């Protein structure tokens, strides 16, 4: 029994040593440094009244108002002569190209000889008192039919000479138009443009705000008006790729467009709307929550969020229809 007590004391002593070895020394507490909060300056602007202009910017190209494609509408054959080239000025009715006429000239010569022969026979019958009415009527009919054949060949011959449909400048020659090339009826040969009457043409996403007659300006303060506005779904595919947006093909009549600017690009501003004496706020002050516009108003040192109703959109500002009063201080940052 005495021996058991001694053993128990030894075990307890060893456990005490073991647990005391597991205890760590007391750690030093590190006090975090004090951070001075950043003083954020709240920039405000007063809600004011004034004028606001809503404009639409677009890019276009200076092009001739009138373009005509010259083609052999009723004739086909091999090109033998090209009388003009790109850059040449032509007058309406001027010969500008010819197709091979050898075969048709031969046919016309033969038809004309046959006509002359029938005409002589007809005159002889008329001069002969013994000629019957049936003989005269028959040869008269032959003469008329031959005259129709001659007239048709003359018309066909004329169709082998291409004349300018309008007065203007040759602005394009189609690449396949070379001497010796076979041309089908209706194939385009030249583009002729009236370069003394120029317009601006472009494409803009469709909007109900655009109307014919609207004023247009550019950075040089040249003035103009929308003269034509067409919905062009085909151009929508070219412009937007995968979307189904519609686009307006727009034509603008402008002052001061000289022939030297033909083909150059130009940036224009279209006046959509303008208002005077309306409440307005900077665009930078307007935020959105679920597409609803709101602003932060500074009131007695506190920020108060207010939902607002917007009107027209200017380049830097919005018109405010409701939700704010003149003099309200709105946060712009």
Automatic annotation (TrEMBL):
Signal peptide: 1-24
Transmembrane segments: none
Xref: SUPFAM superfamilies: HlyD-like secretion proteins (SSF111369)
Swiss-Prot/TrEMBL keywords: Coiled coil, Signal
Recorded coiled-coil stretches: 108-163
Stated family: Belongs to the membrane fusion protein (MFP) (TC 8.A.1) family.
Name recorded for this polypeptide: RND family efflux transporter, MFP subunit
Gene Ontology molecular-function annotations: efflux transmembrane transporter activity
Residue intervals of the CzcB-like barrel-sandwich hybrid domain: 76-194
Record bears the keyword DNA damage: no
Family matches, as InterPro entries: BSH_CzcB-like (IPR058647), RND_pump_MFP (IPR006143)
A GO cellular-component term linked to this record: efflux pump complex
Domain of life, per lineage: Bacteria
Lineage of producing organism: Bacteria, Bacillati, Bacillota, Clostridia, Eubacteriales
């Amino acid at each position: 029994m005495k021996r058991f007590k001694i053993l128990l004391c030894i075990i307890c002593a060893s456990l005490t040593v073991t647990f005391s070895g597991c205890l760590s020394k007391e750690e030093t507490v590190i006090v975090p440094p004090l951070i001075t909060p950043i003083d954020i300056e709240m920039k405000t602007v007063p809600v004011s009244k004034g004028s606001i202009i809503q404009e639409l910017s677009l890019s276009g190209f200076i092009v001739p108002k009138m373009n005509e494609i010259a083609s052999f509408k009723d004739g086909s054959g091999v090109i033998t002569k090209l009388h003009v080239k790109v850059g040449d000025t032509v007058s309406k009715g001027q010969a500008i190209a010819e197709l091979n006429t050898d075969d048709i000239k031969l046919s016309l010569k033969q038809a004309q000889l046959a006509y002359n022969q029938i005409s002589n026979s007809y005159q002889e019958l008329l001069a002969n008192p013994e000629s019957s009415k049936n003989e005269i009527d028959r040869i008269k009919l032959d003469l008329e039919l031959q005259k129709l054949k001659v007239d048709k060949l003359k018309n066909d011959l004329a169709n082998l000479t291409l004349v300018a449909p309008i007065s203007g400048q040759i602005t394009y020659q189609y690449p396949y138009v070379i001497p010796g090339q076979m041309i089908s009826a209706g194939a385009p040969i030249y583009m002729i443009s009236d370069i003394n009457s120029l317009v601006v043409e472009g494409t803009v996403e469709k909007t109900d705000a655009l109307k014919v007659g609207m004023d247009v300006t550019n950075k040089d303060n040249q003035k103009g008006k929308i003269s034509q506005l067409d919905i062009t779904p085909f151009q929508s595919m070219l412009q937007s790729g995968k979307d189904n947006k519609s686009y307006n093909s727009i034509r603008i009549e402008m002052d001061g467009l000289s022939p030297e600017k033909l083909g150059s690009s130009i940036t224009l501003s279209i006046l959509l709307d303008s208002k005077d004496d309306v409440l307005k706020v900077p665009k930078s002050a307007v935020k959105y929550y679920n597409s609803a516009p709101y602003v932060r108003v500074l009131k007695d040192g506190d920020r108060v969020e207010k939902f607002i109703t917007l009107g027209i959109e200017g380049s830097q500002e919005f018109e405010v229809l409701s939700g704010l009063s003149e003099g309200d201080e709105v946060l712009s940052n």
